[in-house]
Design goal:
The protein is of the alpha/beta class. It has 6 helices and 11 strands. The protein has a single domain, classed as Vaccinia Virus protein VP39 (Rossmann fold), CATH 3.40.50. Strands 1, 2, 3, 4, 5, 6, 7, 8 and 11 form a 9-stranded mixed sheet that branches. The protein has a two-stranded antiparallel ribbon with strand order 9-10. It is globular. It starts with 14 loop residues before the first helix and ends with a strand. The N terminus is likely disordered.
C-alpha cells in the first residue's frame, strides 16, 4: 500500500488553533501582510492571487489600506476560509477550495504565497505553475538557506508535514530562467528571521524566513 503524505494545507486543525486565527482576524494586523503590501504598492497591479489564503489575512490588510485589487484566494482548508467569509462576505465568489498543487491558477499581475511553498509535495513543479500564471510580480514568503533540504515534522500539527528549505542560488536560477529578476528580504514578522525556532531536533534545523520578490523583466 502506498504511503500517504500530507501537506501543510491538508491538515485538520485543532480547536485551539482555530480560536487563535479567529482572534487574529478580528484583533491583529499581521506584520508580514503589511511588509508584503509595502512591496506590492510600488508596482501598478490590478489583479492578485493569494495562494494559501487561509482566513484572508492578506485581504484584510488590503481592505484596511483601501487598495483596489482584483483579489482571488486559493486554499484547501474549508474551515479557515469559512472563518474569513464571516468577516468578508464580499469574497464569497473570490476563492476556491482546492489542492493548489493540482489547480490551474488564473493569470494575474501579482501572486503571493506565504508559508505555502515549503509545505507542498512538489515545490519545483508548483513554482513553475506560479511563474507561468504571473505577469508582473511574485512574492514568496518561505524558508531559504545555503542549501536545499527537505524534512517532515509535525510542527504542532496533527499529522506529518513537509518542510522544505530552498537554496538561494538554485531558487534564483529557476526564477531567472523565466525572465524574472529575484530579490530577497528578511521577514519582519519572525524578528527579521532570527534563528529562534528549531523545527527538527535530528537535523538541528531552524526556521529562517525570507520574502522573495521576483519582478518580471520589462514589466
Amino acid at each position: 500500500m502506498k504511503k500517504k503524505t500530507y501537506t501543510h494545507t491538508s491538515l485538520t486543525r485543532g480547536k485551539r488553533e482555530l480560536s487563535l486565527y479567529k482572534f487574529r482576524l478580528n484583533k491583529v494586523r499581521l506584520e508580514w501582510c503589511k511588509q508584503v503590501l509595502e512591496i506590492i504598492k510600488k508596482f501598478k497591479i490590478k489583479s492578485l492571487n493569494d495562494l494559501g489564503c487561509n482566513y484572508f489575512q492578506l485581504y484584510k490588510e488590503i481592505k484596511i489600506q483601501n487598495l483596489k485589487y482584483n483579489y482571488f484566494g486559493y486554499d484547501i482548508d474549508k474551515k479557515f476560509v469559512e472563518i474569513g467569509l464571516k468577516k468578508f462576505p464580499e469574497l464569497k465568489r473570490k476563492y476556491k477550495i482546492c489542492n493548489i498543487e493540482r489547480q490551474n491558477l488564473r493569470k494575474v499581475d501579482c501572486t503571493v504565497a506565504s508559508a505555502v511553498l515549503e509545505h507542498v509535495d512538489k515545490p519545483n513543479k508548483f513554482l513553475e505553475k506560479i511563474l507561468n500564471s504571473t505577469k508582473k510580480i511574485i512574492i514568496i514568503r518561505s524558508q531559504f538557506g545555503a542549501n536545499n533540504s527537505k524534512t517532515k515534522t509535525k510542527l504542532g500539527a496533527l499529522k506529518p508535514v513537509n518542510f522544505n528549505q530552498f537554496s538561494f542560488s538554485d531558487f534564483s536560477s529557476k526564477i531567472e530562467k523565466k525572465n524574472f529578476s529575484c530579490f530577497y528580504f528578511l521577514d519582519k514578522a519572525t524578528n527579521y528571521s532570527l534563528k529562534f525556532k528549531r523545527i527538527n531536533k535530528q537535523t538541528n534545523s531552524y526556521r529562517r524566513i525570507f520574502i522573495m520578490v521576483a519582478i518580471k523583466n520589462g514589466s
